[in-house]
Design goal:
239 residues; alpha+beta; Serine Threonine Protein Phosphatase 5, Tetratricopeptide repeat; SH3 type barrels; five-stranded antiparallel β-sheet; 5 strands
């Protein structure tokens, strides 16, 4: 009952366009393949939170829980503090690995930086202006009544440093794709991107940290128990 309640709460953040509304209607009416036919091309080109979220709901309804998890965690990359996406990710994760507790793949630091993403550029502009005024006051002869501004240099530099750090981390967060969910329970694992397979089965975690990509991005390398392996990108839901 919990899942039915959550999965029916289809949401879109920001402006809801006609396509998003159409996708939601298709999912609600059980036309999952039609909804995914619309969503899957969108997921390849600048997808929104609602695209990933709705795709996750559609995959979960089809019981394709691995793709659903990858979709919900991709939505969380855009809005890592979203409660409904977290609940759904935890639900499908439990369907795949009942004994494991789902954890948000994004740190509290990343969540805070993304939550205040509209603040960092204005903060940099504002403190840069204040800093320029402070520098001017130091190098020029001014009235004593403005001397209090000279004492603001430390908090201003602190805010500037934090804002620059947050902006850089925000940029790297959205640009880099370093996490992945296995699309299969037992994917083929290779010693190298040349296609040399590993003998025997390798137990891999459901969520992987990607270490590197091949030149054409068709292969990714991971570390597992201090061993380096390669997998085909097509076997992973990368975000």
């Amino acid at each position: 009952m919990l899942y039915l309640t959550v999965s029916c709460s289809l949401i879109s953040f920001g402006a809801i366009d006609s396509t998003a509304l159409n996708v939601q209607q298709l999912i609600k009416s059980g036309q999952l393949d039609d909804a995914l036919d619309i969503l899957e091309p969108r997921l390849q080109h600048s997808p929104s939170f609602s695209d990933f979220y709705n795709a996750g709901v559609a995959y979960a309804e089809k019981k394709d829980y691995r793709r659903a998890l990858g979709s919900f965690e991709s939505a969380l990359k855009i809005d890592p503090s979203n409660r409904k996406a977290q609940i759904n990710a935890a639900f499908v994760n439990k369907k795949i690995t009942p004994k494991e507790v789902w954890e948000n793949p994004f740190s509290w630091t990343d969540r805070m930086i993304i939550a205040f993403r509209s603040f960092w550029i204005p903060a940099i502009l504002a403190v840069s202006l204040i800093l320029s005024v402070i520098v001017f006051l130091y190098v020029s002869k001014v009235s004593v009544r403005f001397s209090w501004m000279k004492k603001m240099w430390f908090p201003v530099l602190l805010v500037l440093s934090i804002s620059l750090y947050a902006l850089n981390r925000l940029h790297n967060h959205h640009r880099n794709h370093q996490l992945a969910v296995l699309q299969k329970s037992k994917p083929k694992v290779f010693i190298s991107p040349d296609g040399v397979p590993v003998e025997g089965e390798i137990d891999l975690p459901l969520r992987l940290n990607i270490q590197d990509y091949s030149q054409d991005s068709s292969w990714v390398s991971i570390n597992n128990n201090d061993e380096r392996y390669w997998l085909k990108s097509e076997d992973l839901f990368i975000y």
